[in-house]
# Entry
Amino acid sequence: MVGAGAPVNVPEHAASLMVPSNTLLFRSEGLRIGLVRDGRIQLTPVKIGRDYGATVEVISGLQAGDTVVLDPSDSLISGAPVKVAR
# Structure
């Protein structure tokens, strides 16, 4: 995967959407998560609810079944090609 760590799949039937804290990107335009869509990165704005330290609750911007980038590089940009390692 170019410029990013391994992806994390959000469970399809999650009661609440929880992701590792190290999936978050703090950008000047606001908080983002890198999603993998059609083989490319899409930086998506998200809002978080509760912060549990190692994990955070995402209350908007993420859907069950989305593939998020774990440990994204600060230089990650939307549209960058990505190869998912499973």
